[in-house]
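Lecture 7 notes: from sequence to structure.

We start with a single chain of 390 residues. Read the sequence below before looking at the structure.
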Amino acid sequence: MTATTATTAPPRLHGLDALRAAALGLGIVLHSLIPFAPGALWLVTDSVTSDAVNVPLVLIHLFRMVLFMMLAGYFGRMVLHRRGTGAYLRDRALRILLPLVAFWPVAVLSLGILVGVNVALRGVEPPPTPAADASPLLAFTPGQLWFLLVLMECVLITVVVRAVARRLAGPDRVARLSGRAGALLASPWGVGLAAVPYLVGLLVQGHTAGGIVEPFTVLPEVAPLVTYLGAFGVGWFLQARPDALTRLAATWPVHLGAAVVLSAVVLLGAAALPLWAAAAITALAGWTWTYGLVGVCSRYLTRERPVVRYLADASYWMYLLHLPLLVGIEILLADLAWPIPVKLVLTWAVTAVVLLLGYDLLVRGTWLGAWLNGRRRPRALRRRRTVAAG
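Now the structure, written as tokens:
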């Protein structure tokens, strides 16, 4: 997609909208699976565990945040070129930084209370704290909202680097170089170039188990910042190339096929490999998933589907507030000797119903919807009642 003027809105990319929502939704799935993983360090440990849970955990960790940051970079450049740098920064501060601060007490601080409830009700030991917790800054841990902090860091770094480059080389040359970078990244071997920052992040981290470990404090950490700034940059440069999505749409079978093979290697044998080899395979697996999913969604999700659009709009709200609800449900189910699939389906159903009802009643048509989604939208339940009355 080409850069547009401030008065011309580009056509909506329904496939990428859906994919961004799916990345947030996978985070909810991820947090619902962790209690069933043997030996996992989590807020709640279920009485029923299975090694099989590690398979989806590893697969989701491989690509979810890389995909999300790549899409953030793609949409970020689109907004900046349509509305200008100042408006872009104000929008990101309003819709990323402010939600991090405003939702932190409910979304993160409340988890300490729930851990205490879990200990009191079940007579279990509280979960151990990470080594990084020695820092006094842990009192301000971003928790599961860490990605908003890292995303804001990526936005600021990118805007500063872009401003310096335009000052030194001129806007036209920067635009040409961005287009060339996008063409290279969208080429048949571009996925390997995209994976380099992820590889570097894993090498800096010193291990590949669990993918990139999220930061525990508000201080920037090298491994996540390098990895996700790289992903943000990939999306930024792909947006500078008008035919980038078309190229990825044409090669999605190759990328998804490679992702399956590389993921199998990660699951079955990466632990026995040297760090550099395991890191390279892990990074390539994450990025082949990302390229493949972007390609298939760009190929087949080309028109608006009301249900998909609604879920895409709701996904941000759902992710911001899902964890306290999810942990509360996990505490109630933890000591029941039910099969894991039954517990998961019940957890997902209750979480989805509560969060979607909350979104429709409290957010979608209110000032909260204008804040989180950019504008107010008609409520689904109100439309249903209107249609029924008519």
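DSSP finds 15 helices and no strands in the chain. Keep this in mind for problem set 3.
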